[in-house]
Amino acid sequence: MRPINDLMRDLARTARALIADRRGNIALISVLTMFPLIFATGMSVDFTLAQRRQDQINGFADAAALGAVTPAMMLQNASASQAMAQNMFTGQLSGMANITYSPSDVTVTATDTGSGTAVTRTVTVTYKASSQNIFASVFGMGTLPISGTSTSTSAVSPNIDFYMLLDTSPSMEIAATTSGIATMVANTAPQGGCAFGCHETNPAADKLGNPSNITCAGATKPSFPTGGEDNFALARCLGVPLRIDLVNQATQNLMTYAQTTATQNGATYRASISTMDYSVNTLQVLTNDLSAAATAASNIAAVTVYDNNCLTKSNCNSDEDSYLDTALSTLNTSMPDPGKGTKNAGDTPQEVLFIVSDGVNDENSGGRTYPPISTAAGQDWCTAIKKRGIRIAFLYTTYNPLPTNGWYNTYIAPEQSQIAPAAQACATPGLYFQVSTDGDISSAMTTLFQKAVATARLTQ
Fold it and tell me: What mean pLDDT is predicted for residues 104-122?
């Protein structure tokens, strides 16, 4: 079979001969009519071939864009995704016949954007090329331009640093359940019924009537000492768990859960653990070793004081042992500005301040008061922290009403209705959770953690 170009040249020579021969008018008209038909048919073939080639190249672009946002590639930075897509696309494109292109006509971009709880990577492959013609080249049209764009996105969990701030003030020594509260009250009648397992080294100094001759859990007769023991020891004697005990175990559980979740999400989670009472204490500096953080969490314990009003025999503070606002100010200073949480060079993790508290302040402020978290100008540390881009997760452990307790009725009851709203206002919207007496603190902490790391599903 002769090449199509040779046939076209022969046809052209025949046409010129017929034009020169005036006897071939009818044939000439026929030839002249054939030229548009042949050209149209040829161009149709060329356009069809170009479209098929463009569709094939678009498939290459789709594969490259999607391949750059697979779960495996999302574990790497955006530059690695971009290089992968570039190499994959140009490798396939260079193997195509009858296609010409310049390397500068192929553009691949990969960008990461942070959106609260998600990092979204967008990969775009754009190209321009030329499809070689068969028929139209006879008329000087050697190629047809083709082009296309393919974009793919995927969202993953960002890297996050969790700054745990745990309330270890005396109010967290309340019995953890309503039955435990009733047990403690029933066994502290000389004190007027006290639901708190306060930890004191010299409880006799309170002169509140320390319990004695109590039958401890598992014992068959009264065995609790007649003096020298505090309500913390009484709670242990009676087998009554305190709220701080649940926070201790819940934080350990959370560190284990966080490690598992980080592995599943392909993210890095780091944690620091600080406690708050009359000071801010660091149990664990920021670390990605969450097993070590879990071990540090086992040391969470309510503050121990000398007696009801004194930290030590010579250092008395009227029992002002809950510096919540001060702790927020301290953390605001120590936490660096957050990043987007991507794996790109120079970026840093997102940050979450994770607070577990009953939400009541008891600071040395010139006159003893028990307000909730401050929202006063210059003292609203929650707002200051959130303005820096740091999210606040607040687990409010309900300050349990104790209507039979005179101290509660005098100092806390007037503030009770404002405690929960202040805690919720402190939290980033969607990151507030309340757990009441008898509630599962471990489950509540896990739920709040899940909200903090929640991210959109993979979209491609």
Answer: 83
Contact 381, 332 (CB under 8 A): yes
Return d(Cα 307, Cα 313) in angstroms, integer: 8
Round to whole Å and give the CA distance between 399 and 113: 40
**Considering Cα of 329, then 330, then 334, then 339, what sign does the dihedral take?**
negative
Q: How far apart are CA 175 and CA 302, in angstroms?
A: 12
Closest alpha carbon to 435 in 451, 425, 426, 446: 446
Q: Which domains does the chain have, with CATH numbers?
A: 4-111+122-142 (no CATH), 160-174+243-303+316-453 (3.40.50.410), 175-241 (no CATH)
Q: Which of 7-21, 164-178, 282-296, 389-403 has the lowest mean pLDDT?
A: 7-21
Q: If you search the block for the tokens 């979204």, which residue do you land on?
A: 120
Q: Which residue has the higher pLDDT, 345 or 253?
A: 253
Q: Which of 72-76, 154-158, 296-300, 321-325 has the highest mean pLDDT?
A: 296-300
Tell me the C-alpha distance between 290 and 282, whole Å.
15
